[in-house]
C-alpha cells in the first residue's frame, strides 16, 4: 500500500516536472523571439517590426467582438420580430378587416420624407425655433394630423393632405 502511494507520488512529480519543462521551453522560445525583435529595433536592420504576440492578442480580441456583435444582432432581430408581430397583430386583427387605415400614396410619402429631411437639417444646424417664438400658429387639426400615423382616412383624404402641407409649410418658414 505504501509502495503504491509512493509510485503515485512519483508519477505526480514526474507529470509536474514535464509540465514545468514544457512551460520553460515556451518561455525560452518567447524570450528568443523578443530578443531577436529587440535586436532588430536597436540595430535598425529591418524596416518593419512585427509583434506576433500583439497580433495574436488582437485577433483573439476581434474574434470576441465579432461573437458579441453576432449575439447582439440575434437579440435585436428577435426583438424586432416580436415588435413586428405585435404591430401587425394590433393593426391587422385576425378577423380580417382594418379599421379606418389606408396606406398613404407615394405623393404623401414624398411630402413626409421631404418634411422629415428638412426638419432634421434644421435641427442639426441649430436653426430649430418654436412656432410661438417665430409668431406662427399651428391649428389643432394640423397638430393632431402630425401626431397620428401617416395613414390617411379615405373620407377626408384631400383635406388632410392640404392640412398636412400647410403644417409643413408653416414649420419650414
Summarize the entry for a quick read.
The protein is an all-alpha fold. It is 73% helix and 0% strand.
Describe the 3D structure.
- The chain has 173 residues and is an all-alpha fold.
- Helices cover 73% and strands 0% of the residues.
- It contains five helices and no strands.
- The longest helix is centred in the N-terminal third of the chain and has 42 residues.
- The relative contact order is 0.05.
Low-confidence stretches: 127-136
Class from helix and strand fractions? mainly alpha
Biggest beta sheet attributes: none
Order of helices and strands: HHHHH
- What's the Cα radius of gyration? 35 Å
The beta-strand count equals: 0
Shape: elongated
Distance N to C terminus: 99 Å
Q: How much beta, percentage-wise?
A: under 5%
Helical proportion? over 70%
Mean pLDDT: 74
DSSP helix count? 5
Q: Specify the oligomeric state.
A: single chain
Organism: Stegodyphus mimosarum (African social velvet spider)
Keywords: Coiled coil
Family: Belongs to the CCDC149 family.
InterPro entries: CC149 (IPR019179)
Amino acid at each position: 500500500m505504501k509502495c503504491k502511494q509512493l509510485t503515485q507520488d512519483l508519477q505526480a512529480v514526474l507529470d509536474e516536472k514535464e509540465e514545468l519543462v514544457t512551460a520553460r521551453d515556451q518561455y525560452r522560445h518567447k524570450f528568443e523571439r523578443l530578443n531577436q525583435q529587440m535586436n532588430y529595433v536597436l540595430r535598425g536592420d529591418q524596416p518593419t517590426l512585427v509583434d506576433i504576440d500583439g497580433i495574436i492578442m488582437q485577433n483573439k480580441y476581434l474574434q470576441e467582438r465579432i461573437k458579441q456583435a453576432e449575439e447582439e444582432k440575434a437579440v435585436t432581430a428577435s426583438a424586432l420580430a416580436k415588435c413586428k408581430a405585435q404591430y401587425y397583430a394590433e393593426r391587422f386583427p385576425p378577423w380580417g378587416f382594418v379599421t379606418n387605415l389606408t396606406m398613404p400614396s407615394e405623393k404623401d410619402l414624398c411630402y413626409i420624407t421631404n418634411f422629415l429631411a428638412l426638419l432634421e437639417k434644421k435641427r442639426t444646424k441649430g436653426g430649430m425655433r418654436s412656432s410661438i417664438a417665430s409668431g406662427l400658429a399651428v391649428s389643432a387639426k394640423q397638430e393632431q394630423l402630425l401626431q397620428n400615423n401617416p395613414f390617411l382616412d379615405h373620407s377626408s383624404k384631400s383635406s388632410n393632405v392640404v392640412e398636412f402641407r400647410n403644417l409643413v409649410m408653416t414649420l419650414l418658414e
